[in-house]
Amino acid sequence: MMKAPIGILGGTFDPIHIGHLRPAIEAQGTLGLAEVRLVPNHIPPHRASPFCTSEQRLAMVRLAAAETPGFVVDERELRRNSPSYTIETLIELRRELPDTPLCFLMGMDSLLGLPGWHRWRELLDYAHLVVSMRPGWQPDYPAEVASLLARHQSRQVSDLHRHRHGHIWLADNLPIELSATRLRALLAAGQDPRYLLPASVASYIRQQGLYQPAP
After folding, report:
1. Which pTM does this prediction carry?
2. Distance between CA 57 and CA 88 in Å, rounded?
3. Strands lying side by side in the sheet with 6-11
4. How remote is the C-alpha of 202 from its chain's centroid?
5. Is the sign of the CA dihedral 90, 179, 24, 76 positive or negative?
6. What are φ and ψ of residue 126, in 5° steps?
7. What confidence tens digit (pLDDT) does each residue in 162-182 have?
8. Cytidyltransferase-like domain: which residues (predicted)?
């Protein structure tokens, strides 16, 4: 019997903030996700090394999950000594959850850059893709992505429940113009990050002295 779908949200989370959490919360409500798993990367393959350690980023993700009903932390990528490739995580999750639809949550910027991902053509063999809108990203799809959408886009929530994988859902979510880079700059400038990330995460950042300006 098919179980309710779950969401998978990966990222560096350096730090985790509302730009990560709010689209995932909306997807959880709109799509009826049983839970959302936050999966912090250990070695992100598409960007520079994180500013904070894996332990610090994990601590912040745990605090954010504790404040957000239905959100849990999945530490599997932090236990790897190799780059955090999404396909490997989805293969592991499919093996562990054979009767659960998996919804991999991503931004429109990631969808547009999908052909640069490791084994990207296999992602839909293991999960649905749920794509949130982001400010400044007009969906001028590359040919390969347009072809993928033509074959796999769905406008029926029921498709994400009845099938374990294989559909793309373009979410009509509230765009939030915030990046971790911008948030780190605000913190380094001594700005108050209130309402931009969970209060417990802001408190942790203050206690640990993270993202401070260079001496």
Report:
1. 0.94
2. 21
3. 71-73, 36-40, 6-11, 102-107, 128-132, 168-170
4. 20
5. positive
6. -125, -20
7. 999 999 999 988 888 899 999
8. 8-184
